[in-house]
Amino acid sequence: MNSFHPHLVARRARQSTIVIFAIFGALTAAFFNVQVLGSEKYRLRSDKNRLRTVYLPAPRGLIVDAQGIALAENVPGYTVSLLVSSEEELHDALDRISAITEIDSAMAGEVLARWRRAPTDPVLLFRDPPLELVAQLEERRVMLRGLVVQTEPKRRYPFGPMVAHAIGYVGEISERELEERSFPGARFGALVGRGGLEHQYDERLRGSDGVRFIEVDVLGRTVRRGGMGGRIEPGQGDTIWTTLDVGLQQYVAETFPAGGRGAVVVMDPRDGSVLALYSAPSFDPNAFVGAQGMVERQRLLTAENQPLFNRAIQGTYPPASPWKLAIAAMALRRGLIDLDSKMPTPCTGGLQYGDRFFRCWQQEGHGDLTLAEAIEESCDVFFYQLGLRLTLPTILNDGTEMGFSEPAGIDLPGEAISFFPSSTQYYDDRYGRRGWTSAIALNLAIGQGENDQTLINMMRFYSMLANSDGAAVEPHLVERRGETARSLDLTSEVLDGLRESLLSVVQTGTAAGARIADLKIAGKTGTAQNPHGEDHGWFIAFAPADDPVVVVGAIVEFAEHGSSVAPMVNSIVARYLLGENHGSEQYRMVFPADSAPEPVQILPLLPSGD
Fold first, then answer.
1. Rg of the chain over CA atoms, in angstroms?
2. Which own/partner contact pairs does 354-358 have at CB distance under 8 Å and 24+ positions apart?
3. Fewer CB atoms < 10 Å away: N or C end of the chain?
4. β strands within 303-439, DSSP E
């Protein structure tokens, strides 16, 4: 028999009412959270789904010379991109565009790879295309709904090949560089510095990219440009002020032997500032800008004459006779000789040591010379004996202390480390403990043997000779990296004597044919042996000899001997000290353009000629 309990029904009704109000309360709170408290969050998600980000590349900072003349600047350019939602749509767009301009399979594959990496971003088709192509694409915009054409700053190098190795160029960042974070802060598709100051100071030059937005529909098709997302303007990178003198740089480039290979560096020895840096053969950095940039770079990378190779800081050569000043400095510092000292055996054209005859570059000999005279005449026999007096361990130790086994520290990427053994352990490892003799010291004494130096490192050493305190800081084009200076630890009287000897080289010695009236130029010629062709020529000079303000050094491959390089170097000195009207055609040399770029190797136990 069923019984009806009014109180039980009332209690259940109250419970149901509470549950219903709790459910409505929860729903109300949820709606309030979504529509009011979370409205901004979900609006942003909605915007993200319908807005596509288009980056606005920042103009790179300018690179200017010491007077503010632009060496790297920006001019207006264009990029063409596509905003698509699928591979099928991308292939369809490429087919349509190929009816206007050629798109080969390699380019199509590259575009597809770009899209797969960032499918929601516009995929780049053309960087700096011709204006005619831009106009043709704009005319067909109705057929190409995802077309994105925008202005973009284009890098320009007003002086082209004249400053290419010092300034460098730009190129698109690679996948590997992105993964390795070689350029912190750079995004996919960004242009970054390649070589030279463009690379060294890339982070400062790059600036900050801006953004704009393109509105798309649910299928990812462009609906409206601009959308509701606003726009962030790009910020230009820093201007980089260099120590370069573009007028002097231009003169150096024009004076260098036509068709020749080598390098020239001009420095202020007092503070290490580089006034000119030129490497030949050169290249046009403007050729890397635009669609054919990667093709041109690959062509130059495989070119026989290696135009991308910076011979001023990357080429290593036997230092030949300019190195004799290092040997002289070692002996003078240790008190083994003075500038008036003579060697036991006069020069008669060579020196017998053991079972070998070490020749002097002058077959008839130089006679009985003092150290000062031996520097002037570049007598090999004198320095053979001086090397033996120093001993091999001392030469290696002192040479390492002078910085000949390390880079000079210039603020450019890729500087080669000069090769010079730091101890006799090198010879033990290479030949065995009894596999070498003291005859090695004879070769090292004249700048041959196991000794390969860069031009920039030899410039640092000659800056020490030029300065009154015998010290020099690291060479630089923009910023000094530190105040640490290497010193020869010689008295001012000894340094004055060495400079006087180098002055005699130009006045009456091996470089007398390059003497310029009314200019006191001190310098040293040298001939580096090359087993693959004509020898390479060195000449490093500074002026005025009694109070130097400029050092000029040159290495010219296949020049036969250093004295042929001296006229060019002295002409550059005159151009710097006396002004732009003091250059002369008589200093121009021409070398074969097709000389083989064989690697420099050493031939032991042979004389050094000048």
1. 34
2. 354/437, 354/439, 356/439, 356/605, 358/384, 358/442, 358/605, 358/607
3. N
4. 350-353, 356-359
Rounded to whole angstroms, the Cα distance separating 49 from 232 reads 19
Q: How far apart are CA 36 and CA 91, in angstroms?
A: 43
Phi first, then psi: give them for residue 328, nearest 5 degrees: -60, -40
Q: Which residues pair with 76 in a beta bridge?
A: 153
pLDDT in tens, 357-404: 999 999 999 999 999 999 999 999 999 999 999 999 999 999 999 999
According to DSSP, residue 587 is labeled G
Q: Give the strand pairing for 240-241 and 63-64.
A: parallel
Cβ neighbours for 531, distance < 8 A, ≥ 6 positions apart: 598, 601, 603
Is residue 444 within 8 A of residue 460, CB to CB? The reply is no
Q: How far, in Å, CA of 88 to CA of 432, rounded?
A: 67
Provide the pLDDT for residue 114. 84
> Each residue of 571-602: pLDDT tens digit?
999 999 998 766 554 444 444 333 333 333 32
Q: Are 408 and 417 in contact (CB under 8 A)?
A: no
H, E, C per residue of 9-36: HHHHHHHHHHHHHHHHHHHHHHHHHHHH
DSSP element (H, E) containing 175: helix 175-180
Q: Once rounded to an integer, what is the mean pLDDT over residues 142-152? A: 82
**DSSP H or E stretch at residue 543:** strand 536-543
- Residue 199: band (very low, low, confident or very high) from pLDDT cuts 50, 70, 90: very high
